[in-house]
Design the sequence.
């Protein structure tokens, strides 16, 4: 791909810090779909908002009350709100980058613009691995939910396998438009489950609970609490793929504002209420701290959300490869045997890999920590700084352009540094915690029924 043909000249493009509504001359990912059998560019911004909420506001939310238990009520709430605002800022950068580079379909395409073939391979691989991790997290959430509902009558690995089957089936639609309608009940289910959990916690508060405003703790323990909300906001790696299937990509920021506003508010209220009524002993996932009947109800209602979120993640991993294989070929837009054969195979492989991950890393918090540290640190936060700096350097007059926008340049450099810090520190504390847990004998063997 010739990157130069997609660029504005510096004289043609030098907006301040706001939106740029002029369109580059390059074709977008899917081109003119008027006569195609399979049309991708059908999503409204409202449906994109639903998709974003369905894949982000999910099982990661259930770890937030335990984060408050680790660092205290006030620091925990500050972290949740700050990361929500930070995520809105990076959403804006990602969307502006996509609008300036409509040929970008996924993080791999963006990596090609930043660093050529090496950048494409690194960011593509990271996207696929992260999506598989996230699908595995949803399978693990489904495993826990089915275990609670059945009083753990079966092997836990079997529950994971049972949950993987509908996740695979719901991943199969070729376009996000089909998944967007499934995402509506998904969003409703996690909202209702969260509200029921808060009501149950309030009606049956834990006697003798301890509620701390702040908690003195060591770095390792505290930073695990930070990786939980980082993962809870992790979904930006899907933004390019979603925006590519919008009728009007210029409306994408409306969807992002809807997502970030809802997620930040809901996360904050859910974490505060649950922690206040259950206290420092709150588990992760937090539904497990409810009375047995209420835990069953909350987990049961949340199951559609776990299913659809997992399906969206595996769909994303498969879609990246599928578009790369068949971009500008008839197999992308037509019902060919080869197209469908490759698509179903990719969906199966992504879900199979997620199943292995889910049963191989059986501790909920550690799975969240690994995924958040390795991938969410960059895709949700850090890499957005690189995108803005790239565009500012190439379209705003090089180093002089960066100096003219000192505030934004500084913010983006800090964004890069924040991503690097979360990645390195998060991996360190998560690996350290896993080592200690195995040494203490608190983690079951991989692929076990325990």
Sequence:
């Amino acid at each position: 791909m010739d990157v130069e043909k997609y660029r504005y000249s510096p004289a043609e493009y030098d907006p301040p810090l706001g939106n740029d509504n002029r369109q580059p001359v390059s074709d977008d990912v899917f081109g003119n779909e008027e006569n195609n059998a399979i049309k991708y560019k059908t999503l409204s911004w409202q449906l994109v908002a639903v998709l974003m909420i369905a894949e982000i506001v999910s099982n990661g939310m259930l770890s937030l009350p335990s984060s408050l238990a680790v660092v205290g009520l006030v620091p925990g709430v500050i972290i949740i709100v700050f990361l929500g605002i930070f995520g809105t800022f990076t959403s804006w950068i990602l969307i502006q980058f996509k609008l300036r580079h409509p040929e970008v379909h996924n993080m791999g395409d963006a990596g090609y613009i930043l660093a050529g073939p090496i950048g494409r391979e690194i960011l593509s691989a990271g996207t696929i691995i992260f999506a598989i991790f996230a699908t595995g997290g949803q399978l693990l959430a489904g495993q826990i939910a089915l275990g609670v509902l059945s009083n753990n009558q079966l092997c836990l690995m079997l529950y994971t396998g049972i949950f993987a089957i509908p996740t695979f089936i719901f991943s199969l639609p070729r376009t996000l438009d089909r998944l967007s309608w499934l995402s509506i009940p998904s969003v409703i289910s996690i909202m209702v489950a969260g509200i029921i959990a808060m009501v149950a916690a309030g009606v049956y508060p834990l006697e003798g609970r301890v509620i701390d405003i702040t908690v003195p703790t060591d770095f390792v323990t505290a930073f695990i609490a930070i990786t939980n909300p980082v993962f809870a906001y992790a979904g930006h790696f899907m933004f390019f793929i979603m925006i590519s299937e919008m009728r009007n990509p210029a409306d994408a920021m409306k969807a992002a504002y809807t997502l970030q506003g809802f997620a930040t508010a809901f996360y904050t209220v859910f974490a505060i209420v649950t922690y206040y009524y259950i206290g420092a002993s709150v588990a992760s996932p937090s539904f497990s701290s409810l009375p047995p009947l209420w835990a069953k109800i909350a987990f049961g209602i949340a199951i559609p959300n776990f299913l659809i979120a997992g399906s969206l993640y595996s769909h994303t991993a498969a879609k990246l490869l599928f578009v790369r294989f068949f971009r500008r070929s008839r197999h992308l837009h037509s019902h060919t045997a080869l197209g469908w054969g490759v698509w179903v195979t990719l969906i199966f492989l992504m879900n199979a890999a997620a199943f292995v991950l889910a049963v191989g890393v059986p501790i909920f918090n550690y799975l969240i920590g690994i995924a958040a540290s390795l991938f969410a640190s960059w895709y949700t936060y850090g890499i957005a700084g690189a995108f803005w700096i790239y565009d500012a350097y190439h379209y705003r007059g090089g180093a002089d352009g960066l100096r003219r926008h000192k505030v934004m340049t500084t913010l983006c450099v800090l964004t890069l540094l924040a991503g690097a810090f979360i990645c390195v520190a998060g991996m360190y504390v998560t690996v350290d915690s896993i080592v200690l847990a195995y040494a203490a004998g608190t983690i079951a063997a991989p692929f076990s029924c325990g």
In short: The CA atoms of residues 131 and 313 lie 5 Å apart. The radius of gyration is 22 Å. Residues 1-25 have pLDDT under 50 and may be disordered. The chain has 15 helices and no strands.
